[in-house]
């Protein structure tokens, strides 16, 4: 019997996938400062509506991936073009996440190691995981989630005594546009990046339970991100906006009786593990979408060459981390909205209209 | 340029025989296209030849139509 992904694994995978973007939170902190947790909650609430769209598509076309759904809804040519754009989006998502984690490692931990060396090592491991199959990747999601919970719970408990209530003040003091900007950024990345899971849908053992799985996964990730966001705001206050990686830099301050210090390496380990998970999912989704669009018999055979391409893409996509930040804060929310919200909405709408038409025709 | 060529050679050596064995024509074409693109990319990176980034072009386009945050 073919291995399938259970609803529980989908839920844990979604949670791990979103937690992989914990570093990206720093960009929204620059916009919404100490009120980042408010925009995080807003983004989460809106994203529930968006995952309803994704679950709706999975329910309407059980056992079909996004590429197959596009083909069915838009026809062979238009569907093929839209799927081609999705492949570009997924490859970009993989490359940008790879660039992000590599920049982080090269800046904060492996300072003398060239960027390409980090990227190649990371892609060899993720490539191996992708070759083994998505079932293998998702089957470790529970262990990863438990490990992340322990690390986050320890971090929060060590820092909770340093929280100052006045660091959260003043509340609702920012211009309205800043709330919109920050919410949009968080909605698009990480919450709605779960659109990637539409490529994994044929592997779901119970597609009808996908809404529940997505919802709980989103909620678990939201709780951990909210906890970290509140701690960062409570300890650092407005100072967090001048730090490049507020969460990571905050962990450096942890000092347990002068015995355990500089424990940020444990947090860095958590970040790397979560990014490994996220990059693996995006990499797998890119691989499988190419397979479906071009009718490749064995997608395993293009995994490593695709990985090499992604490394080259990630190396050339931005000249510096600052450029990456500008993209994330500037055009990225709008660009990603097309693939994460607009196109799935149109697809579901057309599918609904087509379904109604078919029902009417059958009635006659 | 030696290292990228060796890396791409290893990848081709690992995967091309399997593609040929499976008689996967579309798989071979896709592999060849990605291989050539990667080779061009690695050549440009190795010789530090600058070229426009796709994402930067998209960012410029979105900015020009007013769909970007300041």
Describe it for me?
The complex is a heterodimer of chains A (364) and B (70). With 364 residues, chain A is mainly α. Helix content of chain A is 73%, strand content 1%. In chain A, strands 1-2 form a two-stranded antiparallel sheet. The two termini of chain A are 41 Å apart. Chain B is mainly alpha-helical and 70 residues long. In chain B, 76% of the residues lie in helices and 0% in strands. Chain B has helices at 2-21, 25-46, 54-64. In chain B, helix 1 (2-21) runs antiparallel to helix 2. The termini of chain B are far apart. Chain A binds chain B through residues 92, 96, 116, 120, 181, 184, 290, 294-298, 300-306, 308-309, 312-313, 315-319, 323, 326-327, 329-335, and chain B through 7-8, 11-12, 14-15, 18-19, 22, 24, 26-27, 29-31, 34-35, 37-38, 41-42, 44-45, 51, 53-56, 58-59, 62-63, 67-70.
> Whole-Å distance between the termini of chain A?
41 Å
The radius of gyration of chain A is 21 Å
Return the average pLDDT of chain A rounded to an integer. Answer: 90
Distance between the termini of chain B: 40 Å
Shape of chain A: globular
Number of strands of chain B: 0
Count of runs of 4 or more consecutive helical residues of chain A: 15
Q: What is the total tally of β strands of chain A?
A: 2
Strand content of chain B: under 5%
Q: What would you call the quaternary organization?
A: heterodimer
What structural class is derived from the secondary structure elements of chain A?
A: mainly alpha
What is the radius of gyration of chain B?
18 Å
Strand content of chain A: under 5%
What overall geometry of chain B do the principal axes of the alpha carbons give? Answer: elongated
What is the H-and-E element order of chain A? HHHHHHHHHHHEEHHHH
Largest sheet of chain A: 2 strands, antiparallel
- Give the biggest beta sheet of chain B: none
Reading the helices and strands of chain B in chain order gives HHH
State the helix count of chain B.
3
């Amino acid at each position: 019997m073919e291995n399938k992904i259970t609803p529980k694994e989908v839920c844990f995978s979604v949670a791990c996938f979103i937690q992989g973007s914990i570093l990206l939170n720093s960009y929204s902190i620059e916009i919404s400062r100490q009120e980042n947790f408010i925009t995080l909650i807003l983004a989460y609430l809106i994203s529930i509506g968006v995952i309803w769209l994704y679950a709706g598509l999975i329910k309407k076309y059980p056992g079909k991936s996004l590429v197959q759904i596009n083909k069915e809804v838009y026809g062979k040519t238009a569907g093929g073009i839209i799927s081609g754009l999705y492949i570009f989006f997924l490859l970009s998502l993989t490359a940008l996440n790879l660039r992000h984690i590599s920049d982080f490692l090269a800046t904060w931990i492996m300072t003398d190691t060239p960027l390409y060396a980090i990227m190649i090592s990371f892609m060899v491991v993720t490539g191996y995981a992708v070759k083994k199959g998505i079932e293998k990747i998702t089957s470790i999601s529970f262990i990863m989630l438990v490990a992340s919970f322990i690390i986050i719970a320890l971090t929060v408990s060590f820092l909770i005594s340093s929280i100052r209530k006045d660091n959260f003040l003043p509340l609702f003091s920012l211009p309205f546009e800043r709330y919109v900007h920050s919410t949009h950024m968080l909605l698009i990345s990480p919450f709605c990046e779960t659109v990637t899971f539409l490529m994994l849908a044929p592997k779901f053992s119970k597609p009808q339970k996908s809404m529940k799985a997505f919802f709980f996964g989103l909620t678990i990730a939201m709780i951990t991100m909210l906890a970290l966001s509140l701690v960062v705001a409570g300890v650092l206050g407005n100072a967090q906006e001048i730090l490049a990686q507020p969460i990571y830099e905050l962990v450096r301050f942890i000092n347990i009786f002068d015995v355990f210090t500089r424990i940020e390496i444990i947090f860095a380990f958590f970040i790397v593990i979560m990014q490994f998970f996220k990059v693996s999912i995006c990499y797998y989704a890119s691989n499988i979408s190419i397979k479906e669009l071009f009718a490749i018999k064995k997608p395993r055979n293009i995994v490593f060459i695709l990985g090499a391409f992604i490394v080259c893409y990630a190396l050339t996509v931005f000249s510096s981390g600052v450029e990456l930040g500008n993209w994330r804060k500037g055009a990225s929310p709008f660009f990603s909205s097309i693939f994460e919200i607009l196109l799935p909405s149109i697809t579901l709408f057309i599918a609904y209209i087509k379904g109604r038409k078919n029902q009417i025709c059958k009635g006659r | 340029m030696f290292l990228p060529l060796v890396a791409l050679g290893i990848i081709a050596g690992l995967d091309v025989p399997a593609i040929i064995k499976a008689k996967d024509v579309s798989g071979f074409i896709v592999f060849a296209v990605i291989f050539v693109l990667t080779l061009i990319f690695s050549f440009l990176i190795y010789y530090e030849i600058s070229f426009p980034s796709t994402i930067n072009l998209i960012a410029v386009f979105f900015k020009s139509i007013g769909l970007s945050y300041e």
